[in-house]
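User: Fold this; tokens only.

Assistant: Input:
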Amino acid sequence: MSVNDDGQMSSTDSFWEVGKYMRTVKRCDNGYQLCNHMKKLIEERSEIEKKYSAMLSEWAKKWNNFLDKGPEYGTTQAAWRGVLQEADHNAELHTEMAEQLIFKVHAAIKVWQKENYHKSMMHFKETKDFEDNFRKAQKPWGKRLAKVMAARKDYHTACKTEKSTANQENNARGDTTVSQDQLKKLQDKLRKCQQEVESTREKYNAAVNDLNGYNAKYIEDMTEVYKRCQEFEQKRIDFFKKTFFQMHSCLDLSVESKFSQIYTNLHSTIGNVDPNKDLKWWSANHGVDMAMNWPTFEEYSPELQAISKRGRSNLGSTEGGIMITSIKHSREDSFGSYTEQQAQQQQQPQQTYKSQTSNSHGAASSGSMDRFYITDFVRPIPKEYICQWIFRSMLARNDSPVNNGENPFGEGDTGEDEDDDEGEEPPSTGWMVRALYDYVKAEDDELEFKAGDVFTQIATEDEMGWCRGKKGDKIGFYPKNYVERI
């Protein structure tokens, strides 16, 4: 430390200078802020890990959907899925990492910060205590230093005045124009200045000696407070070191057994790719090793004749064949054996017979008069219906053993559908119908609908019980017994 010509102290920026301890005091406040920055750092890293985990999971989900619908198969597909499983497992680990950073490291910093920094009105208690202790330790030495600075100033001023007066007295002795009285006054002033110099010199020396004598005490007191500051800062640094190790344990996946197992499994999965096994599977399911129902000779059977699902029949009225289609059941027709409640419990129409050898919509082959042509039924046929159809067939052939050909059931019509709509041509706009059941089309020229759908019938039914309708911009065939006219 030095004093300039104006008597102002020029600092050497040493810790021992007055007020320079404040840098050490402010370090406590910086420690609190560094804890906040550390928490922010951990929060951001946790968010990065969460986003990375989410991106890995989304990526794996996307490509798993591709494999579910794509052309890959066999052990090669398993290798694809192995790569995606690695992503899923890695995503789980990074999610755990993000949670550990928050619940372990971040929480530990928050607790430590609360325990070591106690907020007061304007400052932290630790900061204020360190500042007060430094000020108390430096105050006695600072007073002595101020005395030294004042004594030095007085001494230097006296020296300056003495030197100026000595120059005046020396000049007066060589100047003949100066009277003896004036010369004597200058000499008296010079003696007083010299006395003042001696007096201020003694005071200055005394102040310096006093200051130097207190330096040991000053150093001891300041060092004691400084040690406490150092200990407090060491506690923070030790805690930060421990925190960094905690972060390391969260981030280091190389020591995680699950992490190494992920890649061990992936390597094993890829190693299981077997081209021969995959090609053999393909051959068995889609190639030359598939089973085949080779066509064989089938003898003609008159009992059941293949009837196409839809199409005009070539049967003439003279052939005497009976085709049962669009059967509508009532309590009277069943003679009380098949109630309306039972009818409501039946499921939607099912095709009760369909030949394996007929795939076309061509006409049914003609057959003997005793054959039944059965297409889609509203419900399973009661045995009473079977008897009724047999009698009607016999009446048509005049083979009835009773009533001389009259219908024993007392019905005027022996085989015709009594529906008033049979054969009626629809108006130009068609009839509106409502679906009673769901129907899934089996061929491209059919119309598909759900139960409750309303659409237009644009043509009457054919002999096989099929109608032509329009639903939206789609036109196609459908079974009549699946709908009702509205």
